[in-house]
Design goal:
The chain is mostly helical and 448 residues long. It has helices at residues 7-25, 40-51, 66-81, 83-93, 100-110, 118-148, 150-165, 184-197, 201-211, 221-245, 255-267, 284-296, 309-323, 338-368, 379-390, 405-420, 422-430; strands spanning 330-331, 334-335. 50% of the residues are buried. Helix content is 61%, strand content 1%. The longest helix has 31 residues, at 118-148. A hairpin with a 2-residue loop joins β1 (330-331) and β2 (334-335).
Length: 448
Amino acid sequence: MTVRLKPQQALVLSFLILILIGTFALQLPGVTVPGRELAWHEALFRATSAVCVTGLAVRSPEDFTPFGQAILAVLFQLGGIGILTFGLVFLVLFGGKVSFFGRQLAQGVLGRGPWEDLWPVLRAVIVVTLLLEGIGTVLLTVAWMPEMGLARAVGWGAYHAVSAFCNAGFGLHPDSLLPWRGNVLVVGTVGLLLIIGGLGFLPLTDLYDRFVTRRRRPATLHTRVALTVSAVLLVVGTVGILALEWNGSFAGLPFGTRILDAVFQAATPRTAGFSTMDLGRYTPAALLFTLMLMFVGASPGSTGGGIKTTTIGVLLAAQLSRARGQRWVSAWGREIPEGVLGAAVSLTLTATTLVFLGSMAILEIERLGRTALGTTAGFLPVVFETVSAFATVGLSTGITSQLLVPSRMVLVLLMFLGRVGPLTFALALAGRHRRRDWRYPTESVMIG
């Protein structure tokens, strides 16, 4: 009997299979330092966090050998771009033909379509990815070479460049980028990579076509919304972090370091996981502000999570249109279809519900386990951790390793749902009962 999968089901299964393979691989001999082997639930948590490009961890990076770090790098590279994307690239390279099913898969992973020829799009994605990760590797190698030497600096540079572009948030230092606070080359390189990686492949390929191939076609509405909302959130985030932490975590720091840290800490919730500050020292207001940035996340078709910039853009456009008394929703003079607005509302409500239920489950588990996180004092850190998991951010106030195993499993589920998308997961479960296409036309706005 032949089993015919829907594109949504294939997408969900690809991530699930990769997580299971990663869990097995992380328990192989030589992955961790002797005496620091991973329990099955620790391996599952780490593999899910890597494949879903989250960055949350229950074990220190120092527990892993170079072999183990290489496995993690492969996992978040495949998880960031999508293992199906690599599969389609190799299929085309070896002379295979991509079926309509394959085109639907690419449309789901990359967030664009349809195409007359799929190869130029796949080529642009791979070229842009390798080019940016290569440039990042060189810059970070130059930055770290004086203190580490060439060989180690190259390894650290490549690992952090891939992790940053894929918005994975995994670093090789237990304190993330805190030791290089104020280092413009390190912080600036990682910051630019995570911002670009979070834009999504549709804006990147549009920019690639415009500035590299010089095809002077107008930017799509999706690209305009994604770039505009991303820029606004970066500016608002920077100003907000500066205002809330000026006399807190920034106290005593040089003015230039404060600005650099604020920009980076405004960008990393979108959804990178790297940090130049100790979030455990954040004020409650700053934590709540960062939580909202994490909930929004990156753009569709990117390496990041969250409800996506385009979702917020569409909802804001709807609010402005209603305030003006318009009967339709528009942006840049183009009408946004009702289906897109409905998807934005549905995704926001679904995400809010998942975060609410996940937070409540963890708080109750910790309360029954009689831990400090199950008290009122643990409320904000737990909610912050839950949003970080669902939005595949990876930022933490430091409570990840303190959580009980059942609580970690809740985070595993949230990371998985956040990476594949709750609406995509729901459509995968619906299977054949869903008859309409699961995406929208290219000249519209992609949601989720």
